[in-house]
Structures are given as C-alpha cells and as structure tokens.
Amino acid sequence: MKSNYKFLMAMIAGLLVGAAGKSAMHGEQVKMPPVYVISEAETIADDTAVKNYGTKVQETLVPFKGHYHFVDGDAPPRGIVVIAFESSEQALAWYSSPAYAAIKPIRLAAVKGRMFMVGGFAQ
After folding, report:
1. Whole-angstrom Cα distance, residue 67 to residue 82?
2. What is the side-by-side order of every strand in the sheet holding 80-85?
3. Mind telling me which residue stretches traverse the membrane in this protein (predicted)?
C-alpha cells in the first residue's frame, strides 16, 4: 500500500514539474507587443529642414531596431510618421539617445506638432 502511495505521489510531482516546465517554456515564447512612436505635424514651417531631419533620423533608429511602419497601402499623408520599435524601452532609449538629441532641434524648429508613444498588440 505504501509503495502505491509513493508511486502516486511521485507521479503527481512529475506532472507538476512537467507542467511548470511547459509553462516556463511557453512564457519564453511570448512575444512582447510592439510600440509605435507617432509624430504628427500640424504645420511645417521649413520643408528643407524637415527633409534634412528625415534623412538623418533613419540613422538614429538603427541601433534601437526602429523602423518606419505602414500597415497597409501607401505612405501616410504628409505630416504623419509612424515608427515601430520592439519595446517601449527601445523607443525611449532612441528618443533620449545622443544621436537623436543632436537632430531633435531641427524637428522642433521646423514643425509645429506632437510626438507620442502608443503600445501595440501582441501577435
């Protein structure tokens, strides 16, 4: 009788360990939802400065795996830009990076608008 009890307890313990391991492995596979930085321009005071900023901002995104993002169709209308990042930490690190700080005054001087961060949905 005692051996049956020990066997049953060992089986239950094995099932619990297996379930915990499976749960931990599944947790590693969950992908964090993306984060989007959206820049919206009400008015553009200096088209040349905005083009200059646009050519420079791409370089600042590379170390943070940021990229322009379009869901479907053509590029958005003038004045709206969506940049995708893998996490809010990457987005904030990009925004506060020395490389972006160097060109941020160009945008602030040339564009009246806003920039904000929005969380996405896990795939």
Report:
1. 8
2. 67-68, 80-85, 35-44, 111-119
3. none
Token pair of 81 as six digits? 């830009």
Shared domain check, 5 and 52 = no
Identify the DSSP state of 34.
P
Q: What is the pTM of this model?
A: 0.68
**Number of compact structural domains in the chain:** 2
Give the gyration radius of the chain's Cα atoms. 24
User: Which is nearest to 83 in space by CA: 52, 109, 107, 62?
Assistant: 62
Domain that residue 94 falls in: 35-119
Amino acid letter, 62: V
Residue 4 has pLDDT above 60, yes or no: no
What pLDDT was estimated at residue 5? 47
63, two tokens:
């170390």
DSSP state of 47: H
- 43-76 residue pLDDT tens: 889 989 988 998 899 999 999 999 887 666 665 5
| Token pair listed for 39 | 């820049």
The pLDDT of residue 8? 47
Regarding whether 81 and 96 lie in a shared domain, the answer is yes
